[in-house]
Design brief:
about 350 residues, alpha+beta, Rossmann fold, Dna Ligase, domain 1, D-amino Acid Aminotransferase, Chain A, domain 1, 3 domains, 5-stranded mixed β-sheet, 5-stranded antiparallel β-sheet, 11 helices, 14 strands, globular
Length: about 350
């Protein structure tokens, strides 16, 4: 009889991306083979309550089935290792964090799992936190010599004290059009495209609702190209996909609600462009010390210039998500992708157990 792998799925979260995480969890559960895995759901509510549900033994049709209350409930300020046991006496073989945004994708949960010495899918503390903060990420990419569009950034108090100076800095160093974004958020939440001063002022106010730090990036006329990266020390790249939004840009609604976006896989690019893109994606992966998976996003201009945009250290697995589609077109079906990620997590954890923590 085959010994099944016990997986703890961690999803939801105290984040503006809570709903995205719920959809990701539903998709992953549908893809997992119950003959190979014992699945235990751990839901974090929007107000920070941790609730572990019963083992999933059959189909789950709706995200409402993944919300629990009054069962193994812990508040977010009580990190009890008991929550991370599949059964009373058995720890999970691996934790699969399906959390997006702050308090999940930013290294906080990863740090907790490190303290508990549990294997977990995806990036570690450093890569997660650096990848979440667009300013830190871009600074690291600049150090790694990756071409990027121009950018500036501000913290809320700095802007509050000198708003006019902030706007003038953007207009002098970046110009229009530009994009204003919360530094520590994904899924296009709080992002605005600005073509003039009045739009810029409104965009600052909107972005600061979601973070204390914002980043303003140069707008370029370019195709939006993405590639999936999978692995630990020897990462591999998928085929390339292209996002063609029917709206002005690839916003939250187009991503998750109405599917008002064309995803072209594989994208039409030259072999030379693909080789350059792969090299840049792997360089970015290694610069952040990533592991498991990332989706690397690029701008490709009409004259063939490639700019590194960002990496997403926990790309979504929703029906509209690019990452699993890229690997499907590369020859890795969704269930296989999940299994590879689980195996990569266990591989990385085993390697860490060889590290010495004592001096004899």
């Amino acid at each position: 009889m085959m010994v099944k792998t016990k997986i703890g799925l961690l999803y939801g979260g105290k984040s503006a991306e809570h709903e995205v995480s719920m959809q990701t969890a539903l998709a992953v559960i549908k893809a997992l083979d119950l003959e190979k895995f014992d699945i235990f759901p751990i839901h974090i509510s929007k107000n920070g309550q941790w609730n572990k549900g019963q083992q999933i033994t059959g189909p789950v049709a709706d995200v409402k089935q993944l919300e629990f209350s009054n069962t193994n409930t812990l508040t977010s300020n009580v990190m009890a290792p008991a929550l991370f046991k599949a059964e009373e006496e058995h720890a999970f073989d691996v934790i699969f964090p399906l959390l997006h945004g702050p308090n999940g994708e930013d290294g906080t949960v990863q740090g907790m799992l490190e303290l508990l010495n549990l294997p977990y899918v995806g990036n570690g503390v450093l890569a997660s936190s650096a990848g979440m903060d667009k300013v830190i990420m871009k600074n690291i990419f600049a150090q790694a010599g990756l071409a990027q569009v121009k950018y500036v950034w501000f913290i809320h108090s700095e802007w509050d004290r000198a708003k006019e100076e902030a706007y003038e800095k953007v207009e002098t160093e970046i110009g229009y059009p530009c994009f204003v974004k919360p530094a520590n958020l994904g899924s296009s939440v709080g992002i605005s495209k600005c073509n003039n001063r009045s739009e810029l002022e409104a965009a600052f106010t909107e972005a600061f609702k979601f973070d204390r730090k914002i980043i303003i990036e140069e707008g370029v006329t370019a195709r939006e190209i993405e590639v999936g990266v999978l692995g630990n020390d020897q990462p591999e790249c998928s085929v390339v996909g292209e996002i063609v939004p029917k709206t002005d840009f690839y916003d939250y609604k187009a991503k998750y609600q109405d599917g008002n976006t064309a995803l072209i896989i594989p994208a039409e690019i030259t072999e030379e462009e693909y080789n350059e893109l792969k090299e840049m994606a792997i360089r970015a992966f290694k610069a952040l010390d990533c592991s498991g998976l990332v989706r690397a996003d690029f701008f490709l201009t009409r004259d063939g210039k490639l700019y590194m945009n960002e990496v997403n250290t926990m790309p979504g697995f929703t029906p509209f998500s690019m990452f699993p589609l890229l690997w499907k077109h590369t020859g890795v079906e969704y269930p296989q992708l999940i299994e590879r990620l689980v195996n990569l997590a266990i591989e990385r954890h085993k390697e860490k157990q060889q590290i010495k923590y004592t001096i004899e």
